[in-house]
Design a protein that fits this description.
By secondary structure, the chain is an alpha+beta fold. It is built from 10 helices and 18 strands. It has helices at 2-15, 25-30, 57-63, 78-88, 103-111, 121-124, 132-153, 162-175, 237-256, 263-276, and strands at residues 19-22, 39-44, 48-53, 68-72, 93-97, 115-119, 180-181, 186-189, 210-215, 217-219, 222-223, 226-231, 315-318, 321-324, 328-331, 334-339, 342-345, 354-355. The strands form 5 sheets. It has a 6-stranded mixed sheet with strand order 4-3-2-1-5-6, sandwiched between helices. Strand 10 and strand 11 form a beta hairpin.
Length: 363
C-alpha cells in the first residue's frame, strides 16, 4: 500500500495536481484498502486518507496501516471531509475518476471552490506497469486458472448444461482459494460458440461440438483470464480448421508482444493471419486488454487503433477469435507479460486442439 501512495504522489507532482480522490473499487483494491461504497480514498501531496463511515471503521482500524482513517457519520456527506482535508493540506486542485463522478457530484465539488480535474486514462496509467510483487501475484492467479481448467476437463460429460459447467468452474475456483471470479464466466457450446460473449444457458453439451470456457479468478486482489475450447469426441472438419487458424494467429500475437511494439501492430500480427485464411469478417473484437486488479479498466489495449507503446512489466491478454454464425466459434486466450523486452505467456494450459478421451459421448 505505502508504495502505491508514493506512486500516486509522484503522479500528483508530475500532473501539477494537489490531491486525488479515489472511489472505484478497482483503484482501492490496487491500493489494498477498504473497497466498500462507504469508503473514499483521498491522497494529497502530504499524506493519504481513508474516509469511512461507521460501517467500515472497525474493520479499517484492524486492516489499514498506511492511510490515516477519517471517520464520518453516514448522514455527513464524505465531500465535507474531503473539503476539510483539502483545506488542512493547502490543496486547491482535485483530480477525480471521471467514470465515478456524476454530473451532480462534479458540480458540488466545484461549488466547494476546488479546481476539479476529470481523469480516466491518466489514472489507469498508474497501474499499467506492474512491479515484481504484482507480477508474482498475477502469475499465481494465472496458475490457479490453469489448475481449475484441468480439474473441470476431467468432469465434463455429454448432457451437462452450460450452467453446470459455469457452476463447476466457480466451485473449483472458490474451493481452491480464489476470492471470487474476475468477471461473469463465459460458457458456450455448439453453434452458441459463435457468440463472443455467450453467457451460459440450459443448453446441454453434445458430442463433437466445441465447448468454450472463458473465465478468470481473483486471487490476492489480482485477476486471471483465460479461454480454451475443447471437444467431446472428434470435431467437425470445419471447426477443426477454424481452430488451427486461431491457434496460429494467437501464437503470432504472442510473438509480436514486445517492448517497443504498439498495440495496433500486435493486433495486426494476429489479425492478418485470420484475414489471409478468409475469416477476417469473423474476428469481431480487439486482440487483447490489460490484466491486473480489474480487466475492464486495465491497460494496455491491443486493437486496430491502439497507439500504446508496450513496455516491460505490462501484462495483457492475447485472444484472437473466429465466430461463424450457424457453425460455431473458437477463441484461444493467454495472459502475457513482457520481461526483458519479450512477451512471455503466463497461461500454461496446452493450446493444441483438445479432444477429451474416455468421456461419455451419448446424446
Amino acid at each position: 500500500m505505502a508504495k502505491q501512495i508514493g506512486r500516486i504522489q509522484r503522479f500528483l507532482n508530475e500532473k501539477g495536481i494537489d490531491a486525488l480522490m479515489i472511489r472505484s473499487a478497482a483503484m482501492k483494491r490496487w491500493m489494498d484498502t477498504m473497497t466498500g461504497s462507504g469508503c473514499t480514498v483521498l491522497v494529497t501531496r502530504k499524506r493519504g486518507y481513508l474516509i469511512a463511515d461507521g460501517r467500515y471503521t472497525t474493520e479499517a482500524a484492524e486492516k489499514e496501516h498506511d492511510l490515516e482513517i477519517v471517520k464520518i457519520v453516514q448522514r455527513d456527506p464524505y465531500l465535507n471531509a474531503v473539503k476539510r482535508i483539502m483545506e488542512q493540506d493547502g490543496c486547491a486542485s482535485l483530480g477525480v475518476e471521471s467514470s465515478e463522478t456524476l454530473a451532480s457530484l462534479y458540480l458540488a465539488m466545484k461549488d466547494m471552490g476546488f479546481r476539479v480535474m476529470l481523469l480516466e486514462d491518466e489514472i489507469a496509467g498508474l497501474r499499467i506497469i506492474k512491479d515484481d510483487d504484482e507480477l508474482e501475484l498475477i502469475q499465481k492467479a494465472a496458475d490457479l486458472g490453469d489448475r481449475i481448467y484441468a480439474s473441470v476437463l476431467g468432469k465434463l460429460h455429454a448432457g451437462m448444461t452450460e450452467f453446470e459447467i459455469s457452476a463447476l468452474l466457480q466451485y473449483e475456483a472458490i474451493s481452491s482459494g480464489a476470492q471470487g471470479m474476475a468477471f461473469e464466466t463465459i460458457v458456450s457450446s455448439g453453434e452458441r460458440t459463435a457468440l463472443p460473449h455467450g453467457r451460459p444457458t440450459a443448453r446441454r453439451i453434445r458430442a463433437h461440438e466445441p465447448i468454450m470456457m472463458d473465465f478468470g479468478v481473483r486471487l490476492n486482489r489480482y485477476e486471471s483470464d483465460m479461454t480454451r475450447v475443447c471437444f467431446l469426441g472428434e470435431p467437425d472438419p470445419a471447426i477443426r480448421n477454424i481452430y488451427h487458424v486461431v491457434q496460429q494467429a494467437q501464437q503470432a500475437g504472442v510473438d509480436a508482444i514486445r517492448a517497443g511494439a504498439t498495440g495496433m501492430s500486435v493486433d495486426r500480427a494476429a489479425r492478418d493471419i485470420i484475414s489471409d485464411a478468409g475469416y477476417g469478417q469473423y474476428f469481431v473484437h480487439g486482440l487483447g486488454h490489460g490484466i491486473g486488479v480489474d480487466d475492464s479498466t486495465e491497460g494496455p489495449i491491443l486493437n486496430a487503433r491502439s497507439t500504446t507503446v508496450l513496455q516491460n512489466h505490462m501484462v495483457m491478454s492475447c485472444e484472437p477469435g473466429i465466430y461463424v454464425p450457424g457453425v460455431g466459434g473458437i477463441r484461444i486466450e493467454d495472459m502475457v507479460q513482457i520481461v526483458d523486452g519479450v512477451g512471455i505467456p503466463m497461461t500454461h494450459t496446452d493450446k493444441n486442439i483438445r479432444v477429451l478421451e474416455g468421456a461419455s459421448y451419448g446424446i
